[in-house]
Amino acid sequence: METIEVINKRRSVRHFKDEPIPEDILRQILKAGCYAPSAHNSQPWEFIVLKGDKKDELGDVFLNISKEERYKEYTGFYVNRLLKYSSKMVKESPITIVVFNDGSFCKTASKYFRQSKKEILHMMEVQSIAAAIENMLLVCHDQGLGAVWLGVPLLMPQELIEDFFETKNDLMAVIPMGYPSKKRAIEKKVDVDKHVTYFG
Ligand SMILES: Cc1cc2nc3c(=O)[nH]c(=O)nc-3n(C[C@H](O)[C@H](O)[C@H](O)COP(=O)(O)O)c2cc1C
């Protein structure tokens, strides 16, 4: 597919067929993530690929958070609905890629910047990771797969994240992916001119 067509036609996909993703396509997706631009070429991303039981367990974790009294401070009616829906997407997908920020840009760059600018470094790290995520979503679409960028799992209690993924890195996104099982209404985009100001 032409790049421009991939960009224009990609949309979030939330329902998947029970069909595996070939290994070479998975590699292409991960490689696209790793080839994204990043602040000072720091490549601050870590990807965890979940399949099979471990993936389904993550779906169960989302359900438990939405149900259990002790996690009440993280949830609420609307978040619970989103977590339940996320659980279904993760379980239905053959593969879910979980994205973390390894903090490497902040670690190396912070010695060169004043304290007051440190949050800017963090922002650049997050922007770099967002670029990696978008690259992966685009390759999914190009390869006939669908995927969705889930942010609601970031509400997971930190100790659960560390236990489940065995990492202290910051959770950035959860991306269930697979062959789409439904044709869905295309999410409309607003007029380009509403977002752009030209000078000169
Ligand atoms: C940072 C971020 C967080 C998101 N979190 C969720 C989420 O938790 N659940 C969900 O279903 N979709 C989530 N989405 C997908 C958006 O809802 C979707 O991109 C938006 O509605 C536009 O639709 P499109 O992707 O089809 O163009 C998220 C997207 C981004 C960029």
Q: How are the secondary structure elements laid out?
A:
Blueprint (H helix, E strand, L loop, with lengths): L2 H7 L13 H12 L10 E6 L1 H16 L9 H16 L2 E7 L2 H6 L8 H25 L3 E2 L10 H8 L4 E9 L22
Bound molecules: flavin mononucleotide.
The site of flavin mononucleotide has 9 residues, from loops.
Task: Describe, in plain words, how this protein is organized in 3D.
The protein has 200 residues and is an alpha+beta fold. The protein has one domain: 3-Layer(aba) Sandwich (NADH Oxidase). Helix content is 45%, strand content 12%. It has 7 helices and 4 strands; from the N terminus they run ααβααβααβαβ. It has a 4-stranded antiparallel sheet, sandwiched between helices. Helix 2 packs antiparallel against helix 6 and helix 3 runs antiparallel to helix 4. The longest helix has 25 residues. The chain is globular, with a radius of gyration of 18 Å. The two termini are 35 Å apart. The mean pLDDT is 92. The protein binds flavin mononucleotide (FMN).
CATH fold-level topology: NADH Oxidase
Secondary-structure element sequence? HHEHHEHHEHE
User: What are the low-pLDDT stretches, counting only 5+ consecutive residues below 50?
Assistant: none
Write down the CATH class: Alpha Beta
In short:
The protein is of the alpha+beta class and 200 residues long.
Which features does this protein show?
alpha+beta; NADH Oxidase; four-stranded antiparallel sheet; 7 helices; 4 strands; binds flavin mononucleotide
